[in-house]
Amino acid sequence: MTAATIISGKQISEEIRKGIALEVEQLSKQNVRPGLAVVLVGDDPASHVYVRNKEKACQDLGYYSEVHRLSAESSQEEVLALVDKLNAQDSIHGILVQLPLPKHIHEKAVIDAISVKKDVDGFHPVNVGNLVIGDDSLLPCTPAGVIEMIKRTGIEIAGKHAVVIGRSNIVGKPVSLLLQRENATVTMCHSRTANMVEIARQADILVVAIGRANMIDASYVKPGAVVIDVGMNRLENGKLAGDVDFESVKQVSGPITPVPGGVGPMTITMLMQNTLLAAKRLNGLA
Ligand code: NAP
């Protein structure tokens, strides 16, 4: 048996970012510089790392960026007032509020307050609704990255059976809608699914987003299937693991994403792409 192809999110990201950099250069001739504002509330260490990575991606691509680090004690009113200010600020085209927020702040109220046109995370209910009905919208970054990676395998999505394990609002549900938009036949699995192994084994494309380290082993995978592992689980030894048992699954699968270096880098790249698109749209250039 030949070894499975590894789908490198890192490499695909680099290719996409080169294209973005060229567009940024073109836009600068029209005096437009994409601008991203990130709002971080509290001290969650993982969130601080994610925000630093986003800040760095902005710097590398020549975006304007602002990071607003608020204390964990900030009130909901303070966060909403900042979002309002950023909604009105011309230099900002994308607003991202890093989740999770401290418990006393209502996440939905904050997401709902972000201008639909600047909602580069794609979490605003209007963008989610547009995704459901197939209208133009800013797509959520991780799901958009998943689709991009599948496309880059060169495998035709149309007509394939895709199985998505996990039905969260930020990953599983939007991934399944996007696969359906690409004309796959989609089955969704979740914690109450019966016979999950049998269902997963029918998949030509298997996307896993459950948050259970290494749970999906080779018994879930049809030989040759494309496997996309969204999971990011921190093990006790500090290492990062996906939801897929990479070593066993790659023995039977077709193209497969690793963790780290798979979906993770794509998420930030898609955020950069959304910010570019928002900047063009807000300036009447797209
Ligand atoms: P989540 O909100 O906790 O949702 C997990 C989903 O998996 C739920 O729908 C749950 O089913 C299902 N599930 C849990 N255990 C299961 C099991 N044993 N069998 C079948 N289904 C099961 O998680 P999420 O936010 O979607 O994130 C999923 C994973 O992706 C996490 O590891 C997260 O860190 C990672 N992630 C990575 C990125 C990235 O950039 N790479 C971005 C976002 C998330 P129920 O609905 O029935 O409870």
TrEMBL record:
GO cellular component: cytosol
UniProt feature coiled coil, ranges: none
Pathway noted in the entry: One-carbon metabolism; tetrahydrofolate interconversion
Domain of life, per lineage: Bacteria
Catalyzed reactions: (6R)-5,10-methylene-5,6,7,8-tetrahydrofolate + NADP(+) = (6R)-5,10-methenyltetrahydrofolate + NADPH; (6R)-5,10-methenyltetrahydrofolate + H2O = (6R)-10-formyltetrahydrofolate + H(+)
GO terms (BP aspect): L-histidine biosynthetic process; methionine biosynthetic process; purine nucleotide biosynthetic process; tetrahydrofolate interconversion
Chain sites annotated for binding NADP(+): 166-168
Record key words, sorted: Amino-acid biosynthesis, Histidine biosynthesis, Hydrolase, Methionine biosynthesis, Multifunctional enzyme, NADP, One-carbon metabolism, Oxidoreductase, Purine biosynthesis
Domain Tetrahydrofolate dehydrogenase/cyclohydrolase NAD(P)-binding, chain residue ranges per copy: 140-281
Domain Tetrahydrofolate dehydrogenase/cyclohydrolase catalytic as annotated: residue spans: 7-121
PROSITE patterns: THF_DHG_CYH_2
GO molecular function: methenyltetrahydrofolate cyclohydrolase activity; methylenetetrahydrofolate dehydrogenase (NADP+) activity
InterPro entries membership: Aminoacid_DH-like_N_sf, NAD(P)-bd_dom_sf, THF_DH/CycHdrlase, THF_DH/CycHdrlase_cat_dom, THF_DH/CycHdrlase_CS, THF_DH/CycHdrlase_NAD-bd_dom
EC assignment: 1.5.1.5, 3.5.4.9
HAMAP family for this protein: THF_DHG_CYH (MF_01576)
Subunit structure comment from the entry: Homodimer.
NCBIfam families named in the record: PRK10792.1 (NF008058), PRK14186.1 (NF010783)
Physiological role: Catalyzes the oxidation of 5,10-methylenetetrahydrofolate to 5,10-methenyltetrahydrofolate and then the hydrolysis of 5,10-methenyltetrahydrofolate to 10-formyltetrahydrofolate.
Family note: Belongs to the tetrahydrofolate dehydrogenase/cyclohydrolase family.
Name recorded for this polypeptide: Bifunctional protein FolD
Organism: Paenibacillus vortex V453
